[in-house]
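Kindly inspect this today.
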Amino acid sequence: MSRARRVEFRDGLARWVRYAALATAVTLCLTAVVWVATAPETRSGVLLAGAIALPLQLLVFAAMVVPRKGSPAFLGMWVGGTFVRLLAVGGVAWLATAREAVHAGVTLLSLVGLLFVLLLLEPWMLRETSRDRIQRTER
C-alpha cells in the first residue's frame, strides 16, 4: 500500500471513529427523549429503532468514507447507502405490521427520525476542512 493510500485510510478511519462516537451519543440522547415521551407499551419499538438505525448508519458511513469524495465510487456508495436505508425502513415496516410485536407507528417514526438525524451528520463529518488540505500538501 502506498504512503498516500495509507494516509487516506488513516484519515477515513479517524473520520469513522469520530462519526461513530457522535452518532452513538446522538442516538442514545434521542432514544432517551423519545423513551420518556412515549407510552410504556410502545417503548420496545423505540429501542428497536435505535438498535437498527445506529449499526446501519455506521456501516453505511464506513462504506462512504473509503472512496475519495467526488469520485464515481463515492457516488455509488452514497446511492447504495440510500437504498440500504430504504430497504431497512421497508423491512421494519413489513415486520412490524406483520408480527405486531411492537407498535408499528412509533417504531417507524423513531427509525426514520433517527436515520434522518444521523444522515444530517454525514456531510459534516465527511467534509474536508482547509486544515486537512493544508496538512496533506505539507506531507
